[in-house]
Amino acid sequence: MAIHPDAGKPAPQSSLVNVPKLISAYYLNEPDLEQNPEHCVAFGTSGHRGCSFDVKFNESHILAITQAICDYRKENNIFGPLFLGKDTHALSEAAFNSAIEVLVANEVQVIAQENDDYTPTPVISHAVVCHNKENPNELADGIVVTPSHNPPEDGGFKYNPPNGGPADTDVTKWIEDRANQLLLEDLVEVELFPYAKASRSGFIKYQDLITPYVDDLVNIVNLKAISDAKIKIGVDPLGGSGINFWPVIAEKYNLDLTVVNESVDPTFSFMPLDKDGKIRMDCSSPYAMTNLIALKDDYDIGIGNDPDYDRHGIVTPDGLMNPNHFLAVAIDYLLNNREWSKEVEIGKTLVSSGMIDKVVARNNCEVKEVPVGFKWFVEGLSKGTLAFGGEESAGASFLRFDGTVWNTDKDGFILGLLAAEILAVTGKTPSQLYKELEQEFGAPIYKRIDAPANAEQKSRLKALSADDVTASTLAGDAITQKLTHAPGNNAAIGGLKVVTENGWFAARPSGTEDIYKIYLESFKGEEHLALLEKEAKKLVDSVIS
What we know:
The chain is of the alpha/beta class and 545 residues long. The protein has helices at residues 19-28, 59-75, 90-105, 121-134, 169-184, 195-198, 210-216, 223-228, 246-253, 290-293, 323-337, 354-362, 378-383, 412-426, 430-441, 455-462, 526-544, and strands spanning 43-44, 47-51, 82-86, 110-113, 141-145, 154-160, 204-207, 232-236, 256-259, 301-305, 312-316, 319-320, 345-349, 366-370, 386-391, 395-398, 445-452, 473-474, 477-485, 492-500, 503-509, 515-522. α2 packs across α3, α11 (323-337) runs parallel beside α12 (354-362) and α11 (323-337) crosses α15 (430-441).
């Protein structure tokens, strides 16, 4: 895709969402599932997302989803509190209040951040995990109202069951089906309690969720080392939900940490435009991170996060690190600086870099390769059998020093602080350490592209079997693996991955657009990557057309 000419430049007034119109559309636009199936509730890898202008994220959707979650709780005997969080998107505020009206009507005890403040995804996960460890007979769960790094006009709503992590496919399918049934029946079975009364009902408990999380950080990151080494940290919250956590972290652990942008604005007017000319709070994008990258020489480590803080962007004096590069360095460092069990595995998604496999093998550890989606790491993190789970899209979490679970969702705080720990302990930035890995294993080149595909073609791609691929070579190398199921758990990947000794590609259909995504990596340079891309597209097109 061509880079927009204004990518990385300040957002013009014409790019800003009209928040009053957006909120009005949330309440006024009504989904009609019979006439417009695209109005249905649809859970992707991170919950239900959409825009109220498009009638995909409106009050009716949130009322139905929340009632479906309440029904799911009853059916599965979940009677503990529900931790409710939200990020800084405009629609998050409205959806948060809609959810409260349904939760209270269903007599669910809700716990939310005091002062009606924002709560990041990893903090909700941490709160659920810690509560359930202490109260196994009164299991809690959570909801986070967020569309993650999506543009300002979008809304999102995701459910974390009692394991604290993203709900798996069985759970989201149950909630999705129930919510759509409620919508088709005009919400007649949705229980509602007016917000004014709900807020005084006693079913909402406002607590300080910042202090317990911050106090516990000492058990997962070597903050003393960061303080003693006087690592200078610059943080750009990108206007997100963790903005009030950083000053508390800095003060408690005596860190030289500066929040370089304190703006919170539902239009995100302070953001540079992303590669496609849209405002998108993607901390792995060099365009969205332009402001922090410009300060790279002022700080030893720069940290950026998306609005719900489940992603991390790491900036060193060399610039913004590729997420795959930092994951490889983080895994290598942790395996050499934590006294975890020798039996633990390292979790990676099948579209993450092959550099991770080489690093893990060198450390005499095993890789658990799973389909895209952090939900596949939840069980292993919960049991302590998975020391680290990471996605190529800059989301990861790992175990405490003692090898027990920290949380079971992606955590941008701990990965950012880990970058500072790495520098404090090794004396080298993560980008310097990655260059050493390249000298040891070679320098892979990673790329992701989009290719057109209609609904029928996407269905074929999703239903492929390895036998459908008849080619024996790819980009001049013998094919060693043809995967339609992940080797780590034998779960369907919803697409295809083809592997050779010197590279690989994976193809997956988009859930929302008429495209399929191709991920590619070569250990033999740009020319080989170009050939890999050409043959990958030809191979996929031949089996889906």
